[in-house]
Design a protein that fits this description.
Blueprint: E1 5-13, E2 21-27, E3 37-38, E4 41-43, H1 50-62, E5 65-71, E6 80-81, E7 86-97, E8 106-113, H2 117-122, H3 130-149
Parallel strand pairs: 1-7
Antiparallel strand pairs: 1-2, 1-4, 2-3, 2-8, 5-7, 6-7
Bound molecules: 8-OXO-2'-deoxyguanosine-5'-triphosphate (8DG).
């Protein structure tokens, strides 16, 4: 079996405590993903910790420093399966420094309203991301409901 590729991504929220919006990014390459929306992030380098890779990628791609919140549980240690060779772990995150700009790999960034599930799911996501986005919306809704009742 070929070696598995570990990818990491961030669901960057306007607030980890009271999330209302999420920052999504539109890819420019490769051709099969150009024009599709994704969680900013990238591949983990050999010997690198996943969280460190995510901080590095977000600095390189968006020019921001973040605070990581909980990981979105995927049921597998390697995270969400993207294809036969790659899986992605996804963390919630909040920007602590910098204004996000599409410095590398993206041509547009957008803050989407998390209460408008139709609009979020209506974006042209990389196909493998749809179940992740659905799980994320579900988990954030439960979080809001929980915090609303406690
Ligand atoms: N970053 C990111 N990659 C995703 C998502 N969904 C998805 O299928 N992928 C795929 C696309 C790529 O095949 C792979 C991530 O590779 P990448 O091109 O972002 O990684 P990288 O920045 O380290 O790039 P490189 O060094 O290989 O040029 O995972 C997603 O939401 N975010």
């Amino acid at each position: 079996m070929s070696e598995q590729i570990q990818v990491v991504g961030a669901a960057i929220l306007d607030s980890l405590e009271y999330p209302a919006r999420m920052l999504v990014a539109r890819r420019t390459a490769p051709e099969q993903f150009a024009g599709l929306w994704e969680f900013p992030g990238g591949k983990v380098d050999a010997g690198e910790e996943c969280e460190a890779a995510l901080h590095r990628e977000l600095k390189e791609e968006l020019g921001v420093t973040v605070r990581l919140g909980p990981e979105l549980p995927a049921g597998e240690p390697a995270g969400w399966r993207l294809n036969h060779r790659a899986s992605m772990r996804v963390w919630l995150a909040e920007i602590t420094d910098g204004v996000p700009r599409p410095l590398e790999d993206h041509d547009e960034l957008r803050w989407v309203d998390l209460s408008d599930h139709h609009a979020v799911l209506g974006l042209s996501w990389i196909p493998a991301d749809f179940p992740i986005v659905q799980a994320l919306l579900h988990s954030l809704r439960s979080q809001v409901l929980r915090s609303g009742t406690s």
